[in-house]
Amino acid sequence: MLNRVILIGRLTRDPELRYTPSGVAVSTFTLAVDRNYTNQQGQREADFINIVTWRGLAENVANYLKKGRLTAVEGRIQTRHYDNNEGKRVYVTEVVADNVRFLESSNNPKNDPFTSGFNQNDRYDKGQDPFADDGSPIDISDDDLPF
User: Fold this and answer.
1) Predicted TM-score of the model (pTM)
2) Whole-angstrom distance, CA of residue 62 vs CA of residue 105
3) Which domains are seen in the chain, by residue range?
4) Hey, CA dihedral for 65, 70, 71, 77, is it positive or negative?
5) Bias category Polar residues: which stretches (predicted)?
6) What string of pLDDT tens digits covers the 147 residues of the chain?
7) Which residue from 37, 110, 102 is spatially nearest to 73, judged by alpha carbons?
8) Do 1 and 33 meet the contact criterion of CB atoms below 8 Å apart?
9) Which helix (H) or strand (E) holds 30?
10) 34 with 46: CB under 8 angstroms?
11) What is the rounded CA–CA span in Å between residue 80 and residue 94?
């Protein structure tokens, strides 16, 4: 089974950093991802996708990402549910990120040393980075294509 998602978009607000009762950092933010087409008025529409990061990645995201920054996120889709105050079951779908890349540098590069990105293990690993060869041709044989 495979559950992977890669998104590129802009933050709609600054990330919110909180800690669980056991002291684990968790950060949440929303990514606005443009659709490939425009509506009847000629305006481009966007999807607003909730993103969750954990531990060191959550702290780094909260420290260095700000509203409006162009960001790439790699992770998995997760659906959870809870019962609200009225007793109704509420479902939440979100992306749990394990790799976040900052695609724009901030106005103050001294305070933004991590423009290459973060992953869940707090280390940059080009061997597992899906954005490392962005724009380069992909070597795939016809036998590997599903169509």
Assistant:
1) 0.70
2) 15
3) 5-144 (2.40.50.140)
4) positive
5) 104-121
6) 999 999 999 999 999 999 999 999 999 999 999 998 888 888 889 999 999 999 999 999 999 999 999 999 999 999 999 999 999 999 999 999 999 998 877 665 555 444 445 555 544 444 555 556 555 666 666 666 665
7) 102
8) no
9) strand 25-38
10) yes
11) 9
